[in-house]
Amino acid sequence: MLITDAAVRETAATIAQSLGGDWVIDPEAPADGAAHLISTDGKGISFRPIFGGTTVQLWITGSAPPPPPIDATPTEQSTYEAQNAVRLPQGHRYNKAATLVTENDEEPETIIMRTLEDDLIPAFEYKPRYVGHRPWVDLFDNALSEVMGEVTPATDTTLQDRDPASDDIVGSAEKPADAEPGPAVEGHPQPAAAQEAPHEPANPPVQASSPPRRKRPRRTSGKGAK
């Protein structure tokens, strides 16, 4: 959707209301065809339509840093100086263009607000080093990586990682009602019952005796008999 020069001030009022806080239309801004918003801490937001209203050019203007903390510790003072070093300096600008011709035919206010929230407002506290640089995204990704690195991996072993040889497979003691009876499984082999020795009959059967062997005469030493 296009934005006309006549609609710029009305759109600026809607944007100021959406931003909330202490953003208002700058009453001292020059009449240069652009809308200028200002906050009580000195930050500025401006935009103007270009290319016949098909595109809007947006830019922000940095403000003076906040006063240093009173009776700050060395750590607090170092933090304050580090934060000021990455802020958009006072009077410096950072700009971004956004097309108003979209497939969803969105309202100009919607596109302008999305561009401010995603690409411009965070640059007040983290100045980009080049066009398209978004250092606040890098900070978020680094913080997320540190948090994910502190997560302890789960110690549970999945079936895929488990050694089958070390598993004790325990079957269910319950049988379904329609299961056919199977062979009994003995948990521990029992020793076989001792077999009794066969008893001999009291009177053994009589066996036929063989004829007695005849003894041969024993030969004596000496001379032969007369």
Describe this structure in words.
The protein is of the alpha+beta class and 226 residues long. Helix content is 24%, strand content 12%. The C terminus is likely disordered.
Kindly report the average pLDDT value.
Answer: 74
Give the DSSP E fraction (strand runs of 2 or more residues). Answer: 5-15%
The rough form would be described as globular
Q: What radius of gyration results from the CA coordinates? A: 52 Å
**Succession of helices and strands:** HEEEEHEHH
- Summing up helix and strand content along with how strands pair, one would put the structural category as alpha+beta
Strand order of the largest sheet: 1-2-3-4-5
Give the topology, please.
Blueprint: H1 8-19, E1 24-25, E2 35-38, E3 44-50, E4 55-61, H2 74-86, E5 93-99, H3 108-120, H4 135-150
Antiparallel strand pairs: 1-2, 2-3, 3-4, 4-5
Helix pairs in contact: 1-3
